[in-house]
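Please decode residue identities from the backbone states below.
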């Protein structure tokens, strides 16, 4: 490492391979005990304090965390939170070994502090003012930053005056009816792929088929529908962006592209720049939309900055305020806020700064005209392309406030997840957690609760003073909400002393679940459930009282919604534009909660009679790590594509569902069934393009037959040896968090001593997106995870060369799964699910034409009928672990000798 200026403060680095302390001018290895003592004596420079604390086994560790300093100096700038990532971000030499990291931390600290003295520091504005608050909070970095940041000659503008305001825009006219011809689509695709790009017939055919989505609709409630399977590497992103951008440009309409994962949203945002200009008529043609809970709420931030947060959370609020001034769109979850920032503060501070509970007061907020959420909503109304997620598209279609913003041309990328998203969106859960949130929304703060939470009375005080009937409805809703669970509800239920009819129902539900439990206490860390069947009279009587109390709440909410509607239609003099917007927002929120309560009432109304064949109902006790956290009744559609078809498909003019794993082998039946098309008597157009990759030479599937199921030591040993054979670059997928943690705990130290860092979901105090960033950035790192990593992880190249599954991914034997299995073909239904999961997991391995790797399943009895999950031509062998190790090691040697890999196909 070349000589660089270094901040002469002691620095510590801890990994599974050991601990290194630099005090003065020398670095030495130390034991955990000495490291903890050193950290307690004086603030040490470190990188990612929670991770260092985890490695040392000392949760109270604190010090001078370089990530906090980076977030202050360079808000909204990306950095991988590792020594290597920090070095690259700051233009420093990458440390060659753990023992060189403490010196890097000193150099990085000096580089960041020195940046604050430079004239070209781009994020200077607001830093001095923010620092004055951080000094009062005794932020460890404040004393080091104070001499480096000069007081500005003029007072700095406060964040809330610096943010731009959005403008009202006129409604857009209905899109023009246009027809896209094949030549125009092909020409647009050629523009996107670039001059001199290799002609790819499969991508051209795909783009042509995608164009069918945008033909004029000929019959109401019968959209044009395309189901398109595109193997990895086909180039489906540009394949559908070509006709989508062409249609939006010619028609003046909006295309919604919906994804399931945030990773694909980020990819789409990048790639859409080639299909759309940065601006058109002064507006962005491409907008990313997410649910309200993803965006920074400026009113919550103001409350936090003015004393609503205390201790470390107050420091987090200051750093978030720094970020907000430079953020592209205020997206806190998967946007340009570093995913690692919230985890540095260990508590749910990030969530507290978003609108988690739908409490927005809209135009009643002093920051309404600067609101990130409102800006995104208005931008999407005039955008050509809206990038959203499946849940938001479904919610907007089902209960959007503005009909003009409801999607009518939709492309569901990651289309194999539409069924899952619909299942979640159209379900109902009458639980303690849900009902107490409703109570808080109606009543507002109670007891010692802090923050800006306001109940209906406070949010609609002007309505109450003007309209007697509205005031009466608010009072009745407030009175009825008193019957909902309140603070301490779970403790009272466990103790058998419920308060009120809803807590009485939850208590009876919990007792019923435990009475029918047949696990024998073997899985104390997992939830329990039982179907709603064969109920006795006492349970039905308790449910009846709960139903009456919910009806008493629903009626005044309905009346209040009607009063607000009348107020908007025939408004008083004080009802100006902002007041109208606020009341419309309140009406939408009331309508949503009225529907929520109506769903609960419908669930309870059926308990004493015959079951509804459209629904699956059950009672559950939710547990995690042996601790109960929720109790309640659940209702899901047996086929959630039924409400999806009527809410999303029927109003649309064109819908495309696309994925690399849409159909089961060559069979389209399940894909058509899970698209919702059959509920509208639509015959979707079907198209499939095979992957261009040479799986016969690029990949190999190894089914290991000598690792016994349930043998944790053998499972851990297999994972450890496979990762060593591949030299890292392994993605390990588990079906149970408990086994993941057991394996990680047995092999992480050994691998680290060999220079192979191991990270894991549900173990490391790092969010999933950041874990993937770390994994992608270090070819010797490996990552263990669960379902969230099975798809949506795009790591082309040498960083991912081995995928290991601990076993066949059998579906969880839940009551809901049992009902759907019974209705959909039994074993064949299970097999389709398993093959889809295997195909999605295998799809992580080969992401570009130069990738090579192995897919290993540790299963002694892998059913042959599932082998069709893998692409045709892929070599598949059943082998012992020793043979698998030889193949993996041999494949890595070949890859290292091969030329540099090429990039993937967009």
């Amino acid at each position: 490492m070349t000589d660089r200026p270094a901040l002469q403060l002691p620095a510590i680095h801890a990994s599974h391979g050991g601990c290194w302390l630099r005090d003065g001018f020398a670095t030495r290895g130390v034991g955990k005990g000495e490291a903890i003592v050193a950290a307690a004596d004086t603030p040490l420079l470190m990188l990612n304090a929670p991770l260092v604390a985890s490695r040392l086994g000392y949760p109270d560790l604190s010090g001078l965390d370089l990530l906090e300093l980076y977030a202050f100096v360079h808000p909204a700038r990306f950095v991988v939170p590792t020594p290597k990532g920090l070095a690259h971000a700051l233009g420093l030499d990458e440390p060659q070994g753990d023992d060189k990291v403490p010196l890097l931390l000193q150099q990085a600290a000096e580089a960041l502090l020195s940046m604050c003295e430079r004239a070209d520091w781009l994020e200077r504005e607001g830093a001095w003012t923010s620092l004055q608050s951080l000094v009062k909070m005794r932020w460890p970095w404040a004393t080091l930053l104070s001499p480096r940041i000069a007081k500005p000659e003029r007072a700095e503008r406060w964040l809330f005056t610096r943010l731009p305001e959005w403008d009202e825009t006129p409604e857009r006219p209905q899109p023009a009816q246009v027809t896209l011809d094949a030549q125009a689509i092909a020409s647009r695709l050629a523009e996107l792929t670039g001059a001199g790009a290799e002609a790819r017939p499969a991508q051209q055919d795909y783009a042509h088929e995608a164009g069918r989505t945008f033909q004029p609709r000929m019959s109401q409630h019968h959209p044009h529908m395309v189901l398109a399977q595109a193997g990895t590497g086909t180039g489906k992103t540009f394949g559908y962006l070509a006709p989508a951008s062409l249609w939006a440009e010619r028609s003046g309409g909006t295309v919604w592209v919906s994804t399931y994962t945030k990773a694909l949203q980020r990819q789409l945002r990048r790639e859409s720049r080639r299909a759309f200009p940065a601006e058109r008529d002064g507006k962005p043609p491409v907008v990313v939309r997410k649910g309200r809970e993803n965006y920074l709420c400026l009113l919550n931030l103001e409350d936090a900055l003015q004393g609503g947060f205390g201790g470390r959370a107050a420091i987090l609020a200051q750093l978030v305020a720094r970020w907000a001034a430079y953020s592209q769109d205020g997206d806190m979850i998967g946007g340009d806020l570093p995913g690692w920032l919230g985890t540095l503060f260990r508590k749910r501070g990030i969530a507290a700064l978003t609108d988690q509970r739908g409490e927005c007061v809209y135009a009643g907020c002093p920051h309404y005209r600067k609101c990130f959420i409102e800006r995104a909503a208005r931008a999407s109304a005039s955008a050509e392309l809206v990038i959203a997620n499946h849940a938001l598209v479904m919610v907007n279609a089902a209960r959007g406030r503005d009909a003009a913003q409801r999607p009518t041309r939709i492309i569901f990328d990651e289309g194999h997840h539409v069924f899952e998203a619909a299942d979640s969106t159209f379900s109902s859960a009458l639980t303690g957690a849900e009902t107490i949130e409703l109570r808080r929304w109606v009543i507002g703060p109670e007891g010692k609760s802090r923050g800006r939470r306001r109940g209906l009375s406070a949010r609609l005080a002007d309505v109450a003073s003007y309209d007697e009937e509205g005031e009466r409805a608010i009072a009745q809703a407030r009175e009825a909400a008193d019957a909902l669970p309140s603070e301490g509800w779970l403790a009272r239920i466990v103790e058998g002393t419920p308060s009120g009819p809803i807590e009485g129902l939850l208590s009876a539900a919990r007792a019923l679940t435990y009475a029918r439990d047949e696990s024998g206490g073997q899985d104390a860390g997992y939830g329990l459930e039982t179907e709603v069947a064969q109920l006795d009279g006492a349970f039905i009587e308790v449910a009846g009282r709960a139903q009456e109390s919910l009806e008493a709440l629903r009626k005044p909410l309905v009346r209040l919604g009607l009063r607000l509607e009348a107020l908007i239609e025939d408004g008083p003099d004080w009802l100006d534009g902002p007041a109208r917007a606020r009341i419309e927002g309140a009406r939408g929120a009331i309508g949503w909660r009225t529907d929520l309560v109506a769903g609960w009432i419908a669930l309870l109304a059926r308990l004493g009679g015959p079951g509804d064949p459209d629904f699956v109902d059950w009672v559950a006790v939710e547990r995690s790590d042996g601790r109960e956290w929720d109790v309640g009744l659940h209702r899901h559609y047996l086929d959630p594509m039924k409400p999806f078809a009527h809410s999303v498909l029927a109003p649309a003019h064109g819908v495309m569902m696309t994925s690399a794993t849409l159909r089961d082998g060559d069979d389209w039946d399940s894909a058509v069934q899970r698209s919702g098309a059959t509920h509208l008597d639509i015959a979707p157009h079907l198209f499939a393009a095979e992957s261009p990759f040479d799986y016969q030479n690029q990949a190999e599937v190894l089914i290991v037959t000598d690792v016994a199921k349930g043998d944790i030591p053998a499972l851990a040993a297999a994972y450890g040896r496979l990762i060593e054979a591949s030299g890292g670059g392994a993605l390990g997928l588990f079906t149970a968090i408990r086994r993941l943690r057991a394996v990680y705990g047995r092999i992480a130290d050994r691998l680290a001593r060999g220079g192979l860092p191991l990270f894991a979901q549900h173990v490391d105090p790092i969010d999933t997106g950041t874990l993937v960033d770390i994994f992608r950035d270090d070819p010797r790192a490996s990552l263990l995870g669960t379902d969230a990593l099975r798809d949506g992880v795009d790591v082309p190249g040498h960083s991912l060369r081995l995928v290991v599954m601990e076993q066949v991914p059998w579906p969880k034997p839940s009551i809901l799964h049992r009902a759907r299995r019974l209705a959909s073909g039994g074993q064949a239904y299970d097999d389709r699910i398993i093959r889809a999961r295997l195909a999605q997991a295998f799809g992580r391995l080969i992401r570009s034409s130069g990738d090579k790797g192995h897919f290993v399943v540790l299963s002694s009895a892998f059913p042959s009928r599932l082998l069709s999950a893998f692409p045709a031509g892929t070599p598949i062998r059943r082998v012992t672990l020793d043979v698998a190790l030889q193949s993996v090691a041999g494949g890595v040697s070949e890859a290292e000798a091969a030329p540099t890999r090429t990039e993937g196909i967009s």
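Observation: The mean pLDDT is 89.
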